[in-house]
Automatic annotation (TrEMBL):
One of its GO terms (molecular function) is endonuclease activity. Residues 14-102, 136-231 form the Homing endonuclease LAGLIDADG domain. It comes from the Eukaryota. It comes from Pleurotus ostreatus (Oyster mushroom). This is Uncharacterized protein cox1. Mitochondrial DNA endonuclease involved in intron homing. Keywords: Mitochondrion. One of its GO terms (cellular component) is mitochondrion. InterPro entries: Homing_endonucl, LAGLIDADG_dom, LAGLIDADG_Endonuclease.
């Protein structure tokens, strides 16, 4: 009770981050857990979540994967109150509804009991993010991609921002993000049952700068964004038309999504 509560901005970010790759797990043997998975090279983001919440533990699994796991009764109850009626994506809501129904029953057993958390089943698409909260920032930390490529044989270049989602039922959140920024397009992905939202072109991409400059990414993807934004500025200045500068731009572009140090 003497711990400081997590901020609204962090909790909003956490919901978006969890919707990206979080799992509400109900094992066959009856064990419950919330699991967030991340590349071990970015384990700091899981350590940050654990420290701020004061819950769960961070576990390295294999050489490349780490997980933040909450399994204790109190921790699961507290997080269930956060996610209940605050999730955005359809598939994650369905997964959580099944999880919460079982968790409510489990919480009535044993010496330590917790109140039933009311579950609304008719709010499938009511909650939506805005550009005045950090849900999209958390979602981008998991699902977003900033990319740049510079041609070796011409003056052409390609720069874009993408967010992908599996399942057609989640397509609407990509369309909602497109409406928020008033730019970009949602298209069918080459992977089966997947869709992606993409913004390309120097002019259109400038429309997302105010949001990501105001709400900073918390994972190491912030390094990708800063480098990507710097490359955007250099391309806008037409540095790519200078043969000498072009070579340095190609080197920087190769580091946008390989920037772990």
């Amino acid at each position: 009770m003497n711990k400081k509560s997590p901020s609204f901005s962090f909790l909003t970010w956490l919901i978006g981050f969890t919707e990206g790759d979080g799992s509400f797990v109900l094992a066959k043997r009856g064990d419950f857990s919330l699991v967030l998975t991340q590349d071990t090279r970015d384990i700091q983001i899981l350590n940050m979540i654990q420290k701020i919440l004061g819950l769960g533990k961070v576990i390295k699994q294999g050489k490349s994967t780490s997980r933040f796991v909450v399994q204790d009764k109190k921790g699961l109850y507290l997080l269930a109150t956060l996610f209940n009626n605050n999730l955005v994506t359809y598939s994650k809501k369905i997964s959580f509804h099944k999880f919460l129904s079982a968790l409510n029953m489990y919480n009535q057993n044993g010496n330590l009991k917790y109140p039933i958390i009311p579950l609304k089943t008719n709010d499938i698409s009511i909650i939506k993010p805005t550009l005045n909260d950090e849900w999209l920032c958390g979602f981008t930390d998991r699902e977003g991609c900033f990319s740049v490529s510079i041609s070796s044989i011409s003056n052409k270049f390609h720069i874009c921002f993408d967010i992908a989602q599996n399942h057609i039922e989640n397509k609407y959140i990509l369309e909602h993000i497109s409406n928020l920024f008033k730019v970009g397009k949602v298209s069918k992905h080459s992977s089966e049952k997947a869709y992606y939202y993409r913004i390309g072109g120097l002019k259109d991409l400038k429309k997302i700068f105010p949001y990501f400059d105001k709400y900073s990414l918390r994972s190491k993807k912030i390094k990708s964004y800063i480098l990507w934004r710097d490359l955007h500025t250099k391309l806008e200045k037409k540095d790519h038309l200078n043969p000498t500068l072009r070579e340095s731009l190609k080197v920087l572009a190769s580091k946008v999504n390989n920037n772990w140090d």
